[in-house]
TrEMBL record:
InterPro entries (alphabetical): ComA-like_MBL, ComEC_N, Competence_ComEC/Rec2, Competence_DNA_uptake, DUF4131, Metallo-B-lactamas, RibonucZ/Hydroxyglut_hydro
UniProt KW Repressor keyword: no
A Gene Ontology biological process term: establishment of competence for transformation
Cellular component terms per the entry's GO annotation: plasma membrane
Lipid bilayer topology: Multi-pass membrane protein
Protein name: DNA internalization competence protein ComEC/Rec2-like protein
Organism for this UniProt entry: Providencia alcalifaciens DSM 30120
Domain Metallo-beta-lactamase: 527-707
Length: 768
């Protein structure tokens, strides 16, 4: 194995860089596979690789393909291993030995992240994690490091899946979070807290006394649970979220502080102690200390890994280019944890490092700026931020659906304040246990953060949303960067033009799908949110739920509308229950022109009662129920609407129950027959009577429900009633977002988990 990019002396030998590239290429399919290969596939691929070794191993290209195949199998094995363990561990009640690894920021917070040590006495490797919802008794103290033995069952990992929304299920799998433990017997094995918890407890009161306690907590210990929603939104919209997660920048700064401390110490040491090894070791120890304080969070661990590789290369006799070190680091991380390929933070950090190296290679700083001392310090920082702003646009738009055109100034202002004004003080607090010093230091940090946040409020207004971007655009930008770097455009200009034309054609085709209108039932858990889209305008039926820190409108409805560039013009609220009206305020805040219609007579609401109808494009809306407005607005006062395009009919039922169904059926002046029925009351046993089903005669029943509903809905009895009539049953808990598009009499159904975005990590894990 050779060191350089190309091994010229030994043509059949791969260089480290070529081997690393093969490993990255082999792991990449794990991000896109809809289904992981089974054991038979492993036998076939293994046989092919064995033949490759025996017959054509001396061929360099064959070795390259061999490494790609091996890394592909290695990555798939990790995926299979975690999915099989989820299925097995969730199949029955088991005995779990667990260790608390997350810090309860308040004693009222029952949800903890735990590491699974053993299950039924068998050690778990590689490490797996779970959430544990356990409310303590008054005399119990929970802390990180405690070990517990519990008897319970695992609820497999599951999340809502919608276009434009955050892919929480992929995030959980990347974190090796396999679900939530539901326990019926709990025994505390060890009451001792970890050293890290004890250190945090020493500073907790002083941190909580500060105005910006959440950001200080995150910068010191990597725990972001106390950061306010306002601060999260402010930092995200200005491109500064990377600063509140202990990652590469912070680890690098910790290394520099340790390195400089050792260099300072060497002034007072004998000459035999003066050398490079002591500062390098000191810097590494400081970096490890900071990573340990963050509980070796995944971004910090990756940074430590890259730093260790850099130190190793630095001590070797061969020369290594910076971009080679970056490729080796990425490959090494993927070799030890192939599931990192699913992590957004992995892609952001990898792209950022490669972007910096690429920028300085293609656009070096002109020598004229090195003549003045001030220019030598300021220009590189500005030059770096300009490069990151330009080169990270594709990945930022893909992940965050927009960019801030003023993020250059936000980073130029806030990054130096944090790296040079806060992180060194944090280490000063940790190294010098003097109470008076701590009080001054925390007040200073809080003031620095407060000063740093003030301009961001203004820069926040420059956020530009760009929602229609494909991953093909990102791949094209990356390919174009390499074409410029290696000068391939000189020889392959025609091929490049063809690629651009094909890309444009693909995008145009995707944006102009032929349909008259679409019905979208969003996957929001327990609640209801449906959207009817026509000519890029939308009418909503219910807006889902809300809770202390968010709502379905913020997390699912608005991201979907932005993703498809749909403008909502009207929202119908079936009845005044929180799981149906919870998102109204956030929806109106984002789209103030939206008109509202309801059956509970609120001011500025259009009325929804029997006999009303209107036409919207190709769709006719007829209100069938209730007979009159009702201020109480119970389930049986739900606004029932029949929607028709002249070919098919849709019946929207809200939370109608047996009594309401009976009253509706007894009316002869309205035909309830519909092709598509929204199953009343999420499929509860209090609704969907046999008479009502026979009267509607649907061919498709749609249900909006949560997998782990405390009310155990939809009811099995209700499901069997629909199955008895051979009615197709689609549940958002099983399918994710459900999209139905209509073109005259034709109807096309697309489900998120199966047709829209089929991925192995989107599957339904565990028993149904």
């Amino acid at each position: 194995m050779q060191i350089g990019l190309f091994s010229r002396n030994l043509p059949s030998t791969l260089s480290y860089t070529e081997a690393a590239t093969a490993l990255i290429i082999g792991t990449l399919p794990l991000l896109f596979l809809s289904k992981l290969p089974d054991s038979n596939y492993y036998l076939v691929i293994g046989s092919i690789l064995l033949i490759t070794i025996v017959f054509i191993w001396k061929n360099k290209f064959s070795r390259f393909l061999f490494l790609i195949g091996m890394s592909f199998l290695w990555a798939c094995w990790h995926g299979l291993e975690i999915t099989q363990k989820i299925d097995f561990l969730s199949s029955d009640y088991r005995q779990w030995d667990i260790t608390i690894v997350s810090i309860p920021l308040t004693q009222d917070d029952p949800i903890k992240r735990v590491k699974i040590d053993r299950v039924d006495g068998r050690r778990i490797f590689p490490s797996l994690y779970a959430s544990w919802n356990f409310k303590q008794n008054g005399h119990e103290n929970r802390c990180v490091g405690q070990q517990w033995r519990v008897t319970g069952k695992l609820n497999p990992v599951h999340a809502s899946l919608n276009e434009g929304g955050f892919d929480r299920q992929r995030y959980f799998i990347a974190q090796r979070m396999i679900g939530t433990l539901k326990t019926k017997h709990v025994e505390q094995v060890s009451v001792q807290c970890s050293l890290r918890q004890n250190i945090i407890d020493q500073f907790k009161e002083k941190i909580l006394a500060q105005k910006n306690q959440g950001i200080i907590y995150a910068l010191m210990f990597g725990e972001r649970g106390l950061i306010s929603i306002e601060h999260i939104q402010l930092l995200q919209s200005t491109g500064l979220t990377h600063l509140i997660a202990i990652s590469g920048l912070h680890i690098g700064m910790a290394y520099l502080i340790g390195y400089l401390c050792a260099r300072l110490l060497q002034f007072f040491l004998p000459i035999r102690w003066i050398g490079e090894n002591l500062p390098l070791l000191s810097g590494m120890l400081f970096a490890l200390l900071y990573a340990w304080l963050s509980n070796f969070a995944i971004p910090a661990t990756r940074a430590i890994f890259a730093l260790l590789l850099w130190l190793y290369v630095r001590k070797q006799s061969f020369y290594c280019f910076s971009w080679q070190w970056a490729i080796w680091s990425i490959a090494s991380i993927l070799w030890f944890d192939p599931l990192a390929i699913l992590s957004d933070s992995f892609w952001l950090s990898s792209f950022a490092v490669l972007a910096i190296l690429y920028w300085f290679r293609i656009f070096p700083i002109p020598l004229v700026f090195n003549r003045h001392p001030l220019f030598r310090r300021v220009v590189p920082l500005i030059h770096l931020q300009i490069g990151l702003l330009i080169l990270l646009i594709p990945i930022q738009v893909l992940l965050f659906k927009g960019i801030n055109v003023m993020s250059l100034f936000a980073n130029l202002w806030f990054v130096p304040l944090i790296t040079w004004g806060v992180v060194p003080i944090v280490f000063g607090i940790l190294l010098f246990p003097i109470n008076a010093w701590h009080n001054i230091a925390f007040r200073f940090i809080d003031k620095v953060i407060e000063i740093g946040l003030e301009p961001l409020v203004y820069l926040n207004s420059f956020w530009v949303e760009i929602n229609a971007i494909s991953i093909y655009i990102v791949l094209f930008c990356g390919s174009f960067a390499f074409i410029l770097l290696f000068g391939w455009y000189r020889n392959y200009l025609g091929l490049l033009i063809c690629f651009i034309v094909m890309l444009f054609f693909t995008q145009s085709k995707n944006q102009h799908q032929e349909h008259d209108w679409c019905l979208i039932l969003l996957d929001i858990g327990h609640g209801l949110a449906a959207i009817m889209v026509q000519n890029q305008q939308g009418v909503l039926y219910d807006t889902g739920n809300r809770w202390n820190k968010g709502s379905n409108a913020k997390q699912q409805i608005i991201p979907f509308l932005k993703h498809h560039q749909v403008i909502p013009i009207h929202a119908i609220l079936s009845h005044n229950h929180l799981d149906h009206t919870g998102g109204v305020s956030d929806l109106i805040k984002q789209y103030p022109w939206v008109s509202l219609r309801s059956s509970f007579g609120q001011p500025r609401h259009l009325p929804c009662y029997q006999g009303q109808n209107w036409q919207w494009g190709k769709l006719r809306f007829d209100i069938l129920w209730p007979k009159k407005l009702s201020e109480t607005s119970h389930n049986n006062d739900s606004c029932v609407i029949q929607v028709s395009d002249g070919y098919r009919k849709l019946l929207l039922t809200g939370d109608l129950e047996k009594e309401g169904e009976k009253s509706l059926v007894m009316q002869d002046k309205y035909s309830l027959k519909a092709d598509i029925l929204f199953v009343p009351h999420h499929g509860s046993s209090t609704s969907s009577t046999p008479l009502f089903i026979r009267k509607v005669q649907p061919t498709l029943a749609l249900v909006s429900s949560a997998r782990y509903s405390p009310w155990k809905i939809p009811s099995d009895k209700v499901y069997l009633r629909y199955a008895k009539h051979n009615i197709q049953w689609l549940n958002t808990a099983e399918e994710g977002q459900i999209t139905i598009c209509f073109k005259k009499e034709k109807m096309k159904i697309s489900r998120y988990r199966k047709e829209i975005n089929p991925r192995w990590y989107h599957l339904w894990f565990g028993d149904r």
